[in-house]
Design goal:
alpha/beta, six-stranded mixed beta sheet, 9 helices, globular
Length: 245
């Protein structure tokens, strides 16, 4: 599955969130959206995922323009897995139920197959002992691992993550990182917006650096961190390092 933005833009009111962005999600390696708050990372993520549609330019899927028809958008979304900043787990359901419910209702799994899949994923992410726990009974890192398991339930081709570690302490961030390494090891493509530069550097892959609502630079993650390619990227990294120290 290939997803590409071609001169894509999106505005809210009279303010452009992103403009004239062209990029292609690389296959089988992470794409990290980096940049200052309010620079358009989450908006770009939502356009690529079909959660919103561009007001200029196009999103292409396997070379074909993504239609604004809601049925087509739902079909596109079903090929992806989503993890958001707070996990968005159903608070009244336990870990197993949070995974099985979308499998049954959105992806056509039988109840028994959904439960088998949930058990497999919870074991993979070292959560089987918490299978009956509701979100309020889990730590932040555990909740995000359940959210990752839920996103992986239907075996998506691409996993989309928006600030998956922003509310977590270093230990919980480590838990999520280990889970993402497991997912990456299975050959899945990860696309994520993040401010956590240490987390991003460890994941590797490619960086798309957004500045002033436009794509300022795209290239190897190692190059971005080891030899920041532009004055803007050096300023950004310097500011992030000051905030983290």
């Amino acid at each position: 599955m290939q997803i590409e933005a071609r001169n894509a833009g999106r505005c809210y009111g009279d303010q452009w969130a992103i403009r004239n962005i062209s990029l292609r999600i690389p296959s089988h390696e992470p794409l990290l959206l980096l940049g200052s708050s309010g620079g358009g990372k989450s908006t770009l993520l939502r356009l690529l995922a079909g959660l919103e549609i561009p007001q200029e330019g196009q999103i292409l899927v396997d070379g074909n323009p993504l239609s604004a028809n809601e049925s087509d958008l739902r079909t596109h979304r079903r090929r992806l897995g989503f993890v958001f900043q707070d996990g968005n787990l159903f608070p009244h359901l336990n870990a197993e139920e949070n995974i099985t419910l979308p499998l049954i209702r959105a992806h056509g799994f039988s109840r028994s197959d959904a439960k088998t899949r949930a058990h497999t994923l919870l074991e993979r992410f070292q959560l089987l002992s918490h299978i009956r726990h509701r979100p309020s009974e889990l730590s932040g890192g555990q909740r995000q691992r359940v959210a990752l398991a839920r996103a992986m339930g239907h075996d998506p081709e691409i996993l989309v993550l928006d600030e998956p570690t922003s509310a977590l302490d270093p230990e919980m961030t480590g838990e999520v990182m280990d889970a993402l390494e497991t997912i990456r090891g299975s050959g899945k493509t990860l696309v994520l917006a993040t401010h956590a530069t240490g987390f991003a550097r460890h994941l590797g892959g490619q960086v798309a650096f957004l500045q002033n609502h436009r794509l300022h630079w795209m290239g190897a993650t190692r190059q971005f961190f080891d030899a920041p390619p532009t004055e803007e990227s050096r300023t950004y990294l310097s500011r992030i390092h000051r905030e983290e120290s």
